[in-house]
Amino acid sequence: MAKKAARKARKAAPKKAAEPLARLRQNMRDLQRDAERVLSRTRKQASSLISRDQQRALDRLLREAKRLRGDLEKRAQQVQKDVEARTQKWVSGIEDQLAKRLEPVLRRLDLATRKDIRSLNRRIGELEKRVKTPAPTHAVVHEREVAPLLE
């Protein structure tokens, strides 16, 4: 029961952490789309009003705007990576704290551990081997020989 609660907590944490990332991605897409619209509208208006010299200046300005756009995209990607890394650290920290706090509770419940189960499986295997080996026909089974098998 406690393990299920721990699994639910682990599954819920990434979903909550993913929401800010999804919003960040959507905001970045909206920002890029809006910037492209403004750039397109500005280009159309400017091209109808300017001469050749002004056209050259506009071309330089557009190249600079494109470079700026690329820089912004790189920064946005870096921020996204940083947010994802921080989120992962945060989730790991929560999982560690949860494990530390659940361990004493599970010990108090006195449940069998994996180590206990492996030990019992090993003993059962040894006992099965002893039972399967044929006993000498002239030997008589005494209580002393059977007692270790029943322990």
Quick tags:
151 residues; mainly alpha; rod-shaped
Structure description:
This protein is mainly α and 151 residues long. It contains four helices and no strands.
> Could you tell me the number of beta strands?
0
**Unreliable segments of 5+ consecutive residues:** none
Relative helix content: over 70%
Overall geometry: rod-shaped
Mean pLDDT: 81
The proportion of strand residues reads under 5%
Report the order of strands and helices.
HHHH
Describe the largest sheet. none
Write the layout of secondary structure elements.
Layout: H1 2-49, H2 52-108, H3 114-132, H4 143-150
Helix pairs in contact: 1-2
Short description:
The protein is an all-alpha fold.
